[in-house]
Design brief:
It contains 12 helices and 11 strands. The strands form 3 sheets. It has a 6-stranded mixed beta sheet, with helices on one face. The protein has a 3-stranded parallel beta sheet with strand order 10-9-11, sandwiched between helices. A hairpin with an 8-residue loop joins strand 5 and strand 6. The chain is globular. It starts with a helix and ends with a helix. The structure holds flavin mononucleotide and adenosine-5'-triphosphate. Keywords: ATP-binding, FAD, Flavoprotein, FMN, Nucleotide-binding, Nucleotidyltransferase, Transferase.
């Protein structure tokens, strides 16, 4: 199975873990519900494209783990009932990608031309449907309170929402799509990072290419995934064409800056955690960074020991460009050793530079 092989061959351990967990959820769903009573909600977006390939992999592993040797060669595709809520305000590129993809992977498509709720009511009346795979991720406005298996909301027709990629980040999504080299909708290569309707979606201004002024870099180049919905805002009536100042109000230079400068501040101090000392440095550093145009993504206070710092660096390693430590000299030296041992040489270098400036200024 090509997806499984591509992820296994990847050196990205985080991706392999996310993949294993998501495929496990898919396999659980196949074990829990009759195949014909499961549906897949597919809209051609990046999240549902990831989900499509996870379902294919999960289905393959489910079938082969049942010891069904005769089936091994016939389960490259997963003929799962697929539902698409088509609206006249969808991007033509999304529509054509959706139809092309279901045809490529032999998915039986049921197109629904009404809103989600009444469409699902109609679907459930027509065919028994116990579970629906959805590409919801934490951070989506509708993800709040959901788990990997979440019954539909009160007032909605009854079915189980199965969310295998609930805990995936923006970066995980792109890491998967690029590692597996699967086709995705062309709009993502034109700077769209999350796609709604033609009336409320523009390319993400943070990807605006300042050298040309009117083009955008691909979605996978967005460094801060929390800003993936920055292009999903109202277009003004005279702004029917997308332009380099997208509707989130940032110009190219600001966008560039946001991409280039991002920091996590790690404050080290038992006294602060015990509440006997108030952390003034963290706040002062954030203020200073903000004034000079940096984006501080988060501030954490950790115990005065190398393991706590190491754990925190591992946690935020994938999201931030620079880490700034505040702590005593002895700890700086320990952190420096740890960074060198872990081969985070660029961070070790940064640490030395910040240490030098502290010593010079003190
Ligand atoms: C298959 C399916 C099931 C849904 N079930 C629910 C639900 O149980 N409760 C709910 O409030 N919204 C439900 N929704 C709506 C979603 O919460 C959300 O509005 C939709 O996916 C659009 O997300 P977006 O704004 O990120 O594009 C469902 C949508 C789909 C496609
Ligand atoms: N029109 C639709 N038809 C079928 N399923 C849909 C539709 N809109 C949303 N969904 C389901 O809800 C999930 C979440 O939607 P969302 O818009 O957040 O993600 P996406 O469209 O896959 O990617 P992107 O965030 O880039 O637009 C989708 O992955 C899909 O499973």
């Amino acid at each position: 199975m090509e997806i499984d092989a591509a992820v296994r061959a990847s050196s990205d351990g985080r991706l392999r873990t996310k993949y294993d967990n998501a495929v496990y959820v898919v396999q659980r769903a196949f074990a829990l519900y009759p195949f014909e009573e499961i549906a897949f909600s597919f809209n051609g977006g990046k999240d549902s494209t990831v989900l499509l390939h996870l379902i294919r992999a999960g289905y393959y592993l489910h079938k082969t783990s049942c010891g069904d040797e005769a089936q091994i060669n016939t389960v490259q595709n997963c003929p799962l009932r697929t539902i698409y809520f088509e609206t006249p305000c969808a991007f033509p590129e999304i529509n054509s990608f959706t139809y092309e993809t279901v045809s490529t992977y032999g998915l039986p498509l049921e197109t629904i031309r009404s809103d989600f709720k009444s469409g699902l009511e109609g679907l459930l009346k027509e065919k028994s449907t116990k579970a629906i795979f959805i590409g919801t991720r934490i951070g989506d406005p509708n993800a709040v309170g959901q788990e990997q298996f979440s019954p539909s909301s009160p007032g909605w027709p009854p079915f189980m929402r199965v969310n295998p990629i609930l805990d995936w980040s923006y970066r995980d999504v792109w890491s998967f799509l690029l590692t597996c080299k699967v086709k995705y909708c062309s709009l993502y290569d034109e700077g769209y990072t999350s796609i709604g309707s033609i009336y409320d979606t523009v390319p993400n201004a943070l990807l605006s290419d300042s050298s040309t002024g009117n083009s955008f870099r691909p979605a996978y180049m967005l460094s801060d995934g929390r800003l993936e919905r920055a292009g999903r805002a109202k277009k003004t009536s005279n702004n029917t064409e997308t332009n380099s100042v997208a509707s989130n109000g940032m110009n190219n230079a600001e966008g560039e800056q946001m991409i280039a400068r991002s920091a996590s501040v790690i404050v080290v101090g038992d006294e602060i955690l015990f509440g006997t000392v108030e952390d003034k440095f963290g706040a002062a550093l954030c203020k200073k960074l903000h004034e000079i145009g940096w984006r501080v993504s988060h501030v954490t206070v950790v115990h005065n020991e190398i393991d706590s710092v190491a754990e925190e660096v591992k946690q935020c390693k994938s999201t931030d460009d620079v880490y700034l430590f505040l702590g005593d000299l002895g700890l700086y030296i320990q952190i420096f050793h740890w960074l060198v041992l872990q081969k985070h040489l660029e961070f070790a270098w940064l640490l030395m530079k910040s240490l030098r400036s502290i010593l010079v200024n003190s």
